[in-house]
Amino acid sequence: MIAVIFEVQIATSKQGQYLSLASQLRPLLNNIDGFISIERFQSLATEGKLLSLSWWKNEDAILQWKNNILHSKAQQEGKKSIFDFYKISIVKLERCYEFTSTHT
């Protein structure tokens, strides 16, 4: 599995615009064979900082998303008018440990 970590800094006045774009793109991910899941988190320490964590089966699936025309257009709009900063990290999962409580 591969994680894509998208960290973005957005001015408070632009967060609604970003979240609207993201919600429009979200259904497209389900059409990509190899997409597993995505979640978004908001920083408690830095105002306006968001993190999207997506999981993928392979790099081909990530490239399909990267090359999606609607995703590319949204990226350009983000660079032009929404993002103050962003960073994308692509990380291969080496090991995973899990615990599930049996308490009811």
Automatic annotation (TrEMBL):
PROSITE patterns named in the record: ABM
Q: Which residues form the ABM domain?
A: 2-91
Protein name, as recorded: ABM domain-containing protein
